[in-house]
């Protein structure tokens, strides 16, 4: 199982904070198609088409919409029909070692489902956004 570093995020307009811990990838569907191409000078483009991933982690924080609400529970996120395009450059470090520099990374998510398990009243609000 693959784990993800903890995430802390302030919400827009200082409306709260969100923290995700112990995030782990529980399902991964590899891309149905992929393409790798080269372009001068020393650039590589990787395109991944139609992947799916599910992650689960512990959520806590607070949001102030009308009144302050505590966020808690286990957050499950399922993303389907995911496409990623990664443009990078193969370079050398000052020591002459190979280095891959990311020039651009774009992604598209076709469908996403977010469920808050054991999140109380605020968790039920998260479940609305499916």
UniProtKB/TrEMBL annotation:
One family name in Pfam for this protein: LBP_BPI_CETP
Domain called Lipid-binding serum glycoprotein N-terminal: residue spans: 3-119
GO terms under cellular component: extracellular space
Molecular function terms from GO: lipid binding
Domain of life: Eukaryota
This protein's name: Lipid-binding serum glycoprotein N-terminal domain-containing protein
